[in-house]
Design a protein that fits this description.
Length: 204
Amino acid sequence: MSHLPNKQLPSQLIRDAISNTDHPLKVEDIISALGSQSFGLIFIVMALPLIIPLPPGVGFLPAALLLIWAIQRALGGTILWLPKAIGKRELSQGFINKIENKALPMCERLEKIFLNSRPGKLSETEIRLASIVVAFQSIFIMLPTPFLNSLWALITLLMGLTILNQNRAFLWLNMSVGLLAVFAIGSTIYAGSEALLEELFDML
């Protein structure tokens, strides 16, 4: 049984949105389908297409939106802001098929775990901290690291699910894993950039 206020799971909301074939699906259609739901749903929606392994640059747009909304929520915002130029962008049928056939089944499996557990009550500070972690994940998605987007997107998806279910234990677990992943990859990138700079200086 779902603990969501409208008793509709995130995956079902998204399926309803992408099954509407009356007109080409746009970014704003997905946002409208969520209604007045929390930022947790937005994190899930933006993370879903990014779970699919993508070449560098392909996931830049959803990652950029994810970054904007994560920062907005971390600063205490409660109303979604969407640039009109982005909202009017149409989603290709191939992209929609990948969401429907690959990303949504994974989301449904995760919902059975995270949206059927006993809910709690998260503080505003905890939700803001979680949003900061999501912002870091989105930055890493935008970096030119081939096919690593799936890792960051999965952490973000889990974060959205635990925010929706108000589960404090899962939230702190996800934040810990997310921060460890950020530290590990960040350290690797930093070490690699230092080694590259040293080689360049030696060549000069």
